[in-house]
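Standup notes
- DV: blocked on the single-chain target, sequence here:
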Amino acid sequence: MALDPQLLEILACPDTHHAPLGYDAAAKTLTCTECGRVFEVRDDIPVLLLDEAGPAAGSGAQSEVS
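- DV (later): unblocked, structure below
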């Protein structure tokens, strides 16, 4: 089941800039359009916790390990 399009319209990064999030249905992730943090979607529920966010792609930080 994919995320509801209306929900995607109102979701925003939990950081202070509250930028919109881009959704990757195949990877089940939401990515901040400003800071690039990657948030998981678990059981069709977005996990918008800064402590659990992955690093921005190409940030030079740890790479994701599946």
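- Follow-up: Residues 2 and 26 are 10 Å apart (CA to CA).
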